[in-house]
Amino acid sequence: MNNPFLPLKPINKQEILKENGVFNKIILLLLPLLIYEVVDFVVLYFTVFGAKVLAENNETVSRILVEDSSYISVLSGILAIVAASIIFIPFIRREHPVLIAGKEPFNHVALTIALGITAAIFINCLFSLTGITTIGTVYEGIASRQMSLPIFVGIVFYGILTPFIEEIVYRLLFFRIALRELGTVAAFILSPLIFGLYHGNIPQALYGIVMGTLITWVYYRFGSFLYPYLFHACANIVIYIIMHNDALNSIVMKPYMIGIFGGLSLGMILYIGSLKASD
């Protein structure tokens, strides 16, 4: 296992001071988050403005705006992801010049995909059956808007594109900077915590913290950007498909599934943790 984190070496030493003050550390950590939020806000503003202008002379656009604003959110989100990805290129080159180091071992890729799927189902079952998903009204509204999209659109946006930019922000940039500036323990606490809180409601925050911890650990264990992205994308795609299909949802959301998928997840976590550098 060729892992660039073990041991972690400072990147671009000449650009980054060896001993950053507290203020500099905070700026370094928060800058990627702030950039993404600003880009997202600005793009949303101009997307809504442009849609309203078009709606004045186009009945189809007007109907979409009135009946379902989810499409505007998706369009805005896609544009924001593209814009932020371009802006983050110099940051990525500094923090992680090689995103994917050559051909990745098949067993590592397969384990990551499988763990992402089983962990997502386990946590969703647990949260659903224990009533965590009913805490507050914000999550229900968000879930309703997400499920209102055609399944293909939802998979592309929530399962492929959104994980890409979130993994750039929270793992590729935030986690690596925190690891270098604050140390391993602080990085492992802060990255999942901020990732969870970013979602803005209790159910998704708790889900984000748990899944964010696993994603961060997989990234740290294997070292390549491919792994957190695959984990996140596969988890989102599978849950979106399950939640979009009532029959499938009723089959999966059973108490015994907590044991099945929890056991599978634990087994894979233990196995990944036992892998040696030569595996």
In total, the number of domains comes to 2
| Structural class by helix and strand composition | mainly alpha
Number of helices: 12
Shape verdict: globular
Mean pLDDT: 86
Order of helices and strands: HHHHHHHHHHHH
Biggest β-sheet: count, sense, barrel? none
**What distance lies between the first and last C-alpha atoms, to the nearest angstrom?**
6 Å
Low-confidence stretches: 6-17
The radius of gyration computed from the alpha-carbon positions, rounded to a whole number of angstroms, is: 20 Å
Which percent range describes the beta-strand content? under 5%
Percent range of helical residues: over 70%
What does this structure look like?
- The chain has 279 residues and is mainly α.
- It has 2 domains: 23-87, no CATH class; 102-274, no CATH class.
- 77% of the residues lie in helices and 0% in strands.
- It contains 12 helices and no strands.
- The chain has helices at 22-55, 59-67, 70-87, 89-95, 106-130, 138-147, 151-182, 184-197, 202-222, 226-244, 246-252, 255-274.
- Helix 1 (22-55) packs across helix 3 (70-87) and helix 7 (151-182) runs antiparallel to helix 10.
- The longest helix is centred in the N-terminal third of the chain and has 34 residues, at 22-55.
- It starts with 21 loop residues before the first helix and ends in a 5-residue tail after the last helix.
- The model is unreliable at 6-17 (pLDDT under 50).
